[in-house]
Design a protein that fits this description.
The complex is a heterodimer of chains A (667) and B (234). Chain A has 30 helices and seven strands. Chain A is mainly alpha-helical and 667 residues long. In chain A, strands 3-4-5 form a three-stranded antiparallel sheet. The longest helix of chain A is centred in the middle third of the chain and has 29 residues. Chain B has one domain: Up-down Bundle (Fumarate Reductase Cytochrome B subunit), CATH 1.20.950. The chains are: A mainly alpha (667), B mainly alpha (234). At the A-B interface, strand 2, helix 20 and helix 24 of A face helix 2, helix 6 and helix 13 of B.
Chain lengths: 667, 234
């Protein structure tokens, strides 16, 4: 039989490796450089998809456990181990993603020791941590069975009931708490989703969705590994089935395989829970009077309807129709729709419902997608590994283990030789990694991709005809500095004082504005035009040769030296006559890149102010407010409302600096 | 994009991509070779003739004896070619500036006169080797298309790099030559792990092949079965 899981595993490996690179970059460069999270939308993909939705889809451990151990529905017992596996992976997934999501990952353990019992998140943290531990303990028998540690298996089985009961309690606790988390957002979350019943909705939908998830996984497992118990004996169309098919249990009720009656029964329970959920949702809309919002025709109303149809209505219909209920494909579609709708609901409550209030749209960055999906893919790989090597669904792992292919033989036409290529899992995955890791690296590396917000800087404006006082506001955002140019000039020694601040003008110019070279507000700018210089120097020196411009290298870089920026002579060595060098000669050495406007201005002013504050006896001289008076005035004004600007200025400075009379209108 | 932006792109993301693929690809060969050496059942590493392997391996570092026995001219050209091909790219002064910037460590640099000599010498060696392949009957019979292509591909960065640094001899704009130099070197990076150029790391394991061939009794039949078994019978 061909390996149906092979392409899926390859894709999962690719996604997981991309996620690995994204995770490295998140730890290396921080959240700001790698994610699109903002103060308006602080909950992104990792939290909502991996944590809130992931946890909701892993309820299977608790629902199936409840059915088997509390309601004693023994026919669902074969699904107990798979359900626990899904819970284990889902919770592992969300905890991994959260580790990358929290601001200081190395403090993930703080809630264990530092208790904040007023927080829902604190409760969620503890429940998730404990429940993850519980699922791990519940997973252990499988692993010990594989390792043939019989005594440990018996010991664990003895305690199963208690462990399952603790697990069920923890689950019901934190699923409602996850809903309660969103109760703090009555003014932000869209009216369609916000309700005081959110905790109930979260528990109910998670129970229904968790059941749909286990049904889906069981059907997928059958499709990948062992079709017969679910899909029945595969028959040619029109050919009557073998006689022994009739002896299967459930055939009389229209089922044609061993496990389908059980799966249909479980899906019916799920659909029942989902119908309770749908009814409650509708009642809630009526109760809160949010019908208007549903009929408003906004994209939120369409999203809400789609979500409700996918979560509840479509699965209920598909399960209710006997034909689709009995077919693995139909039941799989119902389960897929339910699980997808549940995830969509969590995304709505966690992300989409806030767009209108935040006045912005959050779209996850490439790194967020890579890590969010990569973690899920990694969990998928762990699923395949556990399923193939332990007896989770059935006991076939030993057989599979022996029938793994090792060699690919190819015939080479050139040399007439058979090449045997060893192609085990290690070979295949490392080959993928060789390509995927560098590609992910290049595509996710923040410095290659973060689009720089180009904020073109404009020259400062004189506040009077004589340019005695300047208004420096490069990006015209109103965060301006008022600069008493004439006064500084006079204080620093008249006409000879220019060099204290200015350093150089462009060739042929005597008063190049700062903003001409420092032309970006935030980023350094390349200002040296290399191609232009190679040609211009060759023309000026009347160089000849195959390609004249190529002979000009040695004129600047020196002969026989590496042609790099470190070996080049300074601009001033050639432009001695036409370049007005105001400052020290060495201030013309590095004119390849101009620092950003902000760095240039701050560097010039603050350096001097810090030095001078002791001498002139004004300790506040190097503080922001000394120059950015308008900014301070605005901040203070918003803090204490209705206060006179000029009075504030006087409070802030203790004296009235030059030009203060103009600043009143600046905010 | 202007040609300077292309050069920046080739020096930045493209260089990172191709060099990482090369390094990881070669690492993969090492990992797999070590894995196969260590993980194979019934393989007794302790029983391998380590002393003999070491002696023979180191003997090839200065292979005067081996060269004199067979085809002295061809073999010595090939040997000297390898020296140039390793020394020039790693120890060229212009490249050492790159190592400092990207990797953070410096190396002693080759004097520029030596670098020029070795570059021309390496190019000459490539041309001689190409001549052997084209005009030697035995070599020609053994050669495949990739053998020629790889030799020319090795030639390309050397020639373009030489012309870019000696711009007086260069009939094209410096920027163009630099871009071709970068792109050809990066293409070479890409093909190294997936062609016979992987002997950069695999040569070590050739010496260790004595360990590989400690097969169990009856292993030959299994190999034949894996190779021809089911496919051959169908």
């Amino acid at each position: 039989m061909t390996d149906r899981t092979r392409p899926i595993k390859d894709i999962f490996w690719i996604l997981a490796l991309c996620g690995l690179v994204a995770g490295i970059f998140r730890m290396w460069f921080g959240l700001g450089a790698t994610t699109n999270l903002t103060d308006a939308m602080p909950w992104g993909l990792w939290k909502v998809l991996n944590m809130v939705a992931g946890v909701a889809l892993s309820t299977s451990g608790f629902t199936v456990g409840f059915l088997v151990y509390v309601l004693r529905l023994e026919r669902f017992r074969p699904l107990m181990k798979p359900a626990i596996l899904i819970a284990f992976l889902g919770y592992g997934c969300s905890m991994t993603a959260l580790l990358f999501d929290i601001g200081l990952p190395h403090r993930f353990w703080h809630p264990i020791l530092m208790w904040n019992e007023h927080s829902f998140l604190f409760e969620v943290f503890w429940c998730v941590l404990l429940y993850f531990t519980i699922t791990f303990i519940e997973m252990l028998p499988n692993i010990f069975e594989r390792l043939r540690a019989e005594r440990l298996v018996r010991l664990l089985h003895a305690g199963t009931f208690g462990v399952v009961i603790v697990g069920i309690s923890l689950s019901s606790l934190h699923h409602s708490s996850l809903g309660s988390l969103f109760l703090v957002t009555p003014l932000r979350l869209h009216a369609l989703w916000y309700s005081s019943w959110l905790p109930w909705f979260f528990v109910l939908s998670a129970m229904g969705g968790g059941i749909m998830m286990i049904v889906l996984v069981r059907i997928l497992y059958a499709r990948w590994y062992d079709p017969e118990p679910v899909f029945g004996t595969q028959l040619e169309p029109g050919v009557p089935g073998p006689a022994d098919l009739l002896s299967l249990p459930g055939v009389s009720r229209g089922y044609t395989s061993r496990d389908m009656p059980m799966l249909a029964g479980l899906a019916s329970i799920g659909a029942g829970i989902m119908s309770c959920y749908a009814v409650l949702k509708v009642v809630d809309l009526v109760r809160l009077g949010s019908w208007n919002a549903l009929l408003a025709g906004t994209w939120e109303s369409w999203l809400y309807s789609a979500e409700l149809i996918l979560t509840a209505i479509l699965p209920i219909i598909l399960v209710a129709i006997p034909r689709t209920r009995r077919s693995p494909v139909g039941l799989g579609a119902a389960a897929l729709s339910g699980a997808f709708g549940l995830a969509l609901n969590r995304l709505d409550v966690g992300i989409f419902g806030y767009f209108r209030d935040a006045h912005t749209v959050y779209f996850p960055s490439l790194a967020e997608w890579a890590l969010g999906i990569g973690v899920i893919a990694a969990a998928g790989l762990v699923f395949f590994f556990i399923v193939e090597n332990t007896a989770v669904f059935d006991n076939n792992w030993r057989q599979r283990y022996l029938s793994r292919g090792v060699f690919h033989a190819t015939f080479d036409r050139w040399s007439h030789v058979w090449f045997a290529v060893l192609m085990s899992g290690v070979h295949r995955v490392t080959l993928l990694a060789v390509f995927v890791l560098p590609l992910a690296w290049v595509f996710l590396y923040p410095a290659y991709h973060n689009e720089k917000p180009i904020t073109v800087v404009q020259a400062s404006v004189g506040m009077d005809n004589m340019r005695a006082n300047l208004r420096i506001d490069g990006d015209r955002q109103g965060v301006l500095a008022e600069f008493a140019h004439a006064e500084h000039q006079q204080r620093l020694g008249g006409d000879s004082s220019c060099a204290a601040c200015h350093h150089v003008s462009l060739p042929g110019d005597r008063s190049t504005p700062c903003s001409r070279c420092h032309s970006d507000m935030i980023f350094a700018t390349k200002i040296f035009d290399h191609s232009f210089h190679t040609v211009a120097v060759a023309e000026k020196e009347h160089l000849a040769g195959l390609y004249p411009a190529n002979h000009s290298c040695a004129l600047c870089h020196g002969d026989g030296l590496p042609k790099t920026a470190s070996t080049v002579k300074t601009c001033y060595e050639c432009h001695r006559d036409d370049m007005w060098l105001v400052g020290r000669p060495d201030s013309a050495v590095s004119l390849m890149n101009a620092p950003s406007f902000r760095d240039a201005m701050h560097g010039t002013c603050i350096t001097c102010h810090t030095r001078e504050k002791e001498r002139v006896g004004r300790p506040q001289l190097d503080e922001c407010a000394t120059c950015h008076r308008s900014l301070t005035a605005r901040r203070l004004a918003t803090a204490s409302h209705a206060q006179d600007d000029n009075a504030l200025g006087a409070v802030a400075f203790g004296e009235r600096p030059v030009g203060a009379s103009d600043s009143g209108s600046s905010h | 994009m202007s040609i300077e932006q292309w050069i920046d792109f080739a020096k930045g993301p493209l260089f990172a991509l191709t060099s990482m693929i090369m390094v990881l690809g070669l690492l993969r060969h090492i990992v797999i070779q070590v894995y196969e050496l260590v993980a194979g059942k019934g393989r007794r590493l302790s029983a391998a003739p380590w002393r003999k392997i070491l002696n023979e391996g180191l003997g090839w570092a200065i292979p005067i004896k081996q060269i004199m026995k067979g085809t002295p001219f061809f073999s010595s050209v090939s040997y000297l070619f390898h020296i140039g091909v390793i020394v020039v790219p790693v120890f060229l002064a212009d490249h050492i500036v790159l190592w400092e910037k990207t990797l953070g460590f410096s190396l002693p640099s080759l004097p520029s006169g030596w670098a020029d000599f070795l570059t021309i010498f390496t190019v000459a060696c490539v041309l001689v080797l190409l001549g052997f392949r084209l005009f030697g009957d035995r070599q020609r019979a053994m050669s495949r298309l990739t053998d020629y292509v790889l030799l020319l591909l090795i030639l390309l960065p050397f020639v373009t790099g030489f012309l870019a640094s000696h711009s007086g001899m260069n009939p094209f704009p410096w920027e163009t030559m630099m871009l071709v130099h970068l792109l050809s070197a990066e293409l070479l990076f890409l093909v190294i792990p997936f062609t016979k150029l992987a002997h950069i790391v695999l040569f070590v394991f050739d010496r260790l092949s004595a360990v590989h061939w400690q097969l169990r009794p009856g292993a030959g039949d299994k190999v034949a079965d894996a190779l021809f078994g089911k496919e051959a019978r169908v």
